[in-house]
């Protein structure tokens, strides 16, 4: 391994590292050889380095590293910079500038999978690892500074000077007063995945025996065909689904119905007018890059055959046009429950068998920690004789709870408690995730939730239970449907705190789940800094404000970097009734570097887009 050390004082740290086998050390300092030779212990350390084949360089500026190494000599596996400092009484701003230039310079000489080690005195870094922690504005803000050069903090641990043989800490330019290493921390940075440049994507498929294509909504282009549930996938969402199915198969005869589930549903705007739906416009020809669906599309599920026609807005609502035959209209499936319902009505369900459907579902939603515009739903459905549905529900839910507990215990010793509760609070955001199309199925009766305080709290609902009555072949049967959010279950079982991590393209995520094993997830991006921006505007007179569309625009322009939107102020003119709103947006990444400059550009684009799409007047 090639190791580059910067800012060495007496070269004692470099001499210690040089003792390790399999390392090639390049040790440097900012001062000249003449200045360094007079320091206590420096000549001896330099001699030991050279005897072991290390390279020693003097007068090296850490902000211009590529100037000192030929292109073929720039691929360092590790770069160490212990206790960087501008010197004398330089403030935090100048030291941040030093770090910023250093990180940019390091990116030019670091191997693709290399590490940058930065040791800082206690409190300087500004992360929660510092104890005590300084106020943010009074720290060096090391994670935010590194993000500007494309680095993320992947590990942090104590800098144990006593464990480094022969190491003697010096001060700035080896002055008599050395740096205080008590409580010091070593910050290890790695390269971040670059910011993705999502281009418009058109999918081509066969629908109702015709070749059609449609443009994927911009916020879904990186999610619509990821294949998490494919047989060759090691993704924890698939592992949870497979293991949960295997556990349930010990109690129920199972039949998998995942094949050919339609991605598109058909409906008329007069019947399906829901602000959370992604409406799709079919196109007879390809105009952009195309990608084949992995499974293809079966015929779309149809909910309406009414002949009516409307001028539609982006939410699928509008005014009926008289004398017009409405064309077929489609939307991305927001749930698999209609597919299960259609199968029952066609007589495809065998009584006594538990039928399993699973796949991704899509819907617009507000930005909250547990609201996902796409997640993998698993529907368990069975048909039973009327009057036996309650015992069926209890037996099915008990087996689900036992199976989830069993999966969780293989990963963590933390106790996960689940309970079946009556769904009396349908305003809960997590219940609304499952509550689409209440007109097509009976309303949610029960919620399977984490038993935190005896009620369905935000973030606690992992599934819901519904029932519906059918007259099939002269039999009065009740269908029991259990809908589970597989993404949320994977998060709970593996300790993943942010749903966006499930969709990361960084290979370090899946590497933690080899061969589909479920393990406790360890984040490779620690303490990502949040950035806060406010926006205020006037709402157009006489019009309501579409908050779901507002949040959807934030998701789109930021690439899911907005983690919270809060209404912090509202004002209405008494004379005119004109209303003004002020929202606070918090930007934060979970898996890659996010700099202040990037966020500023996102906020500017967001302001322009809400003005254009929502017709608001910015203040």
TrEMBL record:
Catalysis performed (reactions): tRNA(Phe) + L-phenylalanine + ATP = L-phenylalanyl-tRNA(Phe) + AMP + diphosphate + H(+)
The EC number(s) this enzyme carries: 6.1.1.20
A Pfam family matched in the record: FDX-ACB
Compartments (UniProt record): Mitochondrion matrix
SUPFAM superfamilies tied to this protein: Anticodon-binding domain of PheRS, S-adenosyl-L-methionine-dependent methyltransferases
BP-aspect Gene Ontology terms: rRNA base methylation; translation
FDX-ACB domain residues: 526-619
Keywords in alphabetical order: Aminoacyl-tRNA synthetase, ATP-binding, Ligase, Mitochondrion, Nucleotide-binding, Protein biosynthesis, Transit peptide
Top-level lineage group: Eukaryota
Main location: mitochondrion
A Gene Ontology molecular function term of the record: phenylalanine-tRNA ligase activity
Signal sequence extent: none
UniProt cross-references to InterPro entries, sorted A to Z: aa-tRNA-synth_II/BPL/LPL, BMT5-like, Fdx_antiC-bd, Fdx_antiC-bd_sf, SAM-dependent_MTases_sf
Family, similarity comment: Belongs to the class-II aminoacyl-tRNA synthetase family.
The protein, known as: phenylalanine--tRNA ligase
Natural source organism: Oreotrochilus melanogaster
Organism lineage: Eukaryota, Metazoa, Chordata, Craniata, Vertebrata
Gene name, Swiss-Prot/TrEMBL: Fdxacb1
